[in-house]
Amino acid sequence: TITNAKQMIQNAREQQYAISAFNTNNLEWTQAILRVAKVRQAPTLMAISMGAVKYMGGFKVVAELVRNLDEAMEVDVPIAIHLDHGTYEGAKAAIAAGFTSVMFDGSDLPLDENLKKTAEIVDLAKQADVSVEAEVGSIGGEEDGVVGDGEIAPIADAIQMAETGIDFLAAGIGNIHGQYPANWNGLHLDHLAELSAAVSNAVNKPMPIVLHGGSGIPDDQIKQAIQLGVAKVNVNTEAQLAFHQGIRDYVLSNQDLEGKNYDPRKFLKPGFSAIEKALNERIDVFNSADQA
Ligand code: G3H
Ligand code: ZN
């Protein structure tokens, strides 16, 4: 069932589990995410980055693909069609194309411009019953063209951003897009606790916090972050690595592939099976199964 992400993430925030936002890259990836969400009865955001929207053929193609698959696969759990790290124009186009949730990522702008543009997207989104995510501080690393220097979100900025009327807030707390360096010194959990309490007080409700860069963070830190207010965790790299490993293992263990299993629906299957395994493991850690 296609919905916006407001209720599923508010429920998660109040009951201290986290909703997965899994990035998709194509048809089979989208099917894998929907299949796992349905089997596990886990409300889920189907996340599509600006680069993936371009790769897959545009906002309308993506929105209609997800809606049609949701119907054809009889997915009986809430699924939000979510623009990940949207530009200002991208967020507007996504809302017009039928996305049910958008992130406006203005974290590279001066704060007052980020706030102003976010408020404009909030206004547009409210008219279309679309949920909105914004970002303060920045997520470290680089992914799909999104580069951040990992600035820890200042609490005063987070309060001002929460007051724009967004539904959930991405905050830089030491998290990084892509693979984590060996010398990474962990999430700033004390800062998360303080930021989460401050923004919830500011808006008089438990404000869901979003953890970007979910791939590669130790499970115990993710569980602690969920106890401290994280209610949405974004995962992309982990699924991409699983797909890549699944195909490589298949090729390595089937040396004489020449002229065999050349049908892409067979050849690529080990990759998509590996994705499903990875997504299930994330749902176990986030505790979002059977929450439909
Ligand atoms: O917006 C996408 C997520 O933050 C994905 O991060 O690839 O490190 O899991 P990740
Ligand atoms: Zn991200």
Automatic annotation (TrEMBL):
<dbReference type="InterPro" id="IPR011289">
    <property type="entry name" value="Fruc_bis_ald_class-2"/>
</dbReference>
<protein>
    <submittedName>
        <fullName>Class II fructose-1,6-bisphosphate aldolase</fullName>
        <ecNumber>4.1.2.13</ecNumber>
    </submittedName>
</protein>
<keyword id="KW-0862">Zinc</keyword>
<dbReference type="InterPro" id="IPR000771">
    <property type="entry name" value="FBA_II"/>
</dbReference>
<feature type="binding site">
    <location>
        <position position="105"/>
    </location>
    <ligand>
        <name>Zn(2+) 2</name>
    </ligand>
</feature>
<feature type="active site" description="Proton donor">
    <location>
        <position position="84"/>
    </location>
</feature>
<feature type="binding site">
    <location>
        <position position="177"/>
    </location>
    <ligand>
        <name>Zn(2+) 1</name>
    </ligand>
</feature>
<feature type="binding site">
    <location>
        <position position="135"/>
    </location>
    <ligand>
        <name>Zn(2+) 2</name>
    </ligand>
</feature>
<feature type="binding site">
    <location>
        <position position="85"/>
    </location>
    <ligand>
        <name>Zn(2+) 1</name>
    </ligand>
</feature>
<feature type="binding site">
    <location>
        <position position="212"/>
    </location>
    <ligand>
        <name>Zn(2+) 1</name>
    </ligand>
</feature>
<feature type="binding site">
    <location>
        <begin position="213"/>
        <end position="215"/>
    </location>
    <ligand>
        <name>dihydroxyacetone phosphate</name>
    </ligand>
</feature>
<keyword id="KW-0456">Lyase</keyword>
<keyword id="KW-0479">Metal-binding</keyword>
<dbReference type="GO" id="GO:0008270">
    <property type="term" value="F:zinc ion binding"/>
</dbReference>
<feature type="binding site">
    <location>
        <begin position="234"/>
        <end position="237"/>
    </location>
    <ligand>
        <name>dihydroxyacetone phosphate</name>
    </ligand>
</feature>
<dbReference type="Pfam" id="PF01116">
    <property type="entry name" value="F_bP_aldolase"/>
</dbReference>
<dbReference type="InterPro" id="IPR013785">
    <property type="entry name" value="Aldolase_TIM"/>
</dbReference>
<dbReference type="GO" id="GO:0006096">
    <property type="term" value="P:glycolytic process"/>
</dbReference>
<dbReference type="GO" id="GO:0004332">
    <property type="term" value="F:fructose-bisphosphate aldolase activity"/>
</dbReference>
<dbReference type="InterPro" id="IPR050246">
    <property type="entry name" value="Class_II_FBP_aldolase"/>
</dbReference>
<dbReference type="GO" id="GO:0030388">
    <property type="term" value="P:fructose 1,6-bisphosphate metabolic process"/>
</dbReference>
<comment type="pathway">
    <text>Carbohydrate degradation.</text>
</comment>
<feature type="binding site">
    <location>
        <position position="178"/>
    </location>
    <ligand>
        <name>dihydroxyacetone phosphate</name>
    </ligand>
</feature>
